[in-house]
UniProtKB/TrEMBL annotation:
Keywords of this entry: DNA-binding
GO molecular function annotations of the record: DNA binding; DNA-binding transcription factor activity
Entry annotated with the keyword Transmembrane helix: no
SUPFAM superfamilies, per database record: Putative DNA-binding domain
Name used for this protein in its record: HTH merR-type domain-containing protein
PROSITE patterns to which the protein is assigned, alphabetical: HTH_MERR_2
Every HTH merR-type domain range: 13-83
Length: 108
């Protein structure tokens, strides 16, 4: 999450330069990562400028953490993030199956 100092009241979207300043990277890195990570997909406004949400900023922070603190390459970071997404989807599916089975058990 963003610090309160960094968030403007009611602000939903941030431009490339704002995000780069928040996370401590160059704007060109954000544009590069957008091409390499399918998870990072900021919206575009009517003038085709990138508009990042808090979710996008969290993805950028995860990418930076993978690279800086875990020493992963772009390819390794992308693979790790893909695996994590797959495991989260699997957990959600298993929770739905569990709920279904509990509902059946209670109906018996």
């Amino acid at each position: 999450m963003l610090n309160q100092d960094q968030m403007e009241a009611g602000k939903i979207y941030y431009d490339t330069n704002e995000v780069a300043a928040m996370v401590g990277c160059e704007p060109s890195a954000l544009r590069f990562w957008e091409k390499k990570f399918p998870q990072l997909n900021p919206k575009r406004d009517s003038r085709n400028r990138r508009r990042y949400t808090e979710r996008d900023i969290e993805i950028v922070r995860k990418i930076m953490h993978q690279k800086e603190h875990q020493g992963r390459t772009i390819k390794g970071a992308r693979e790790q993030m893909r695996r994590k997404e797959e495991s989260q989807l699997l957990v959600q599916r298993l929770l739905r199956v569990r709920k279904f089975l509990v509902d059946i058990k209670e109906a018996l």
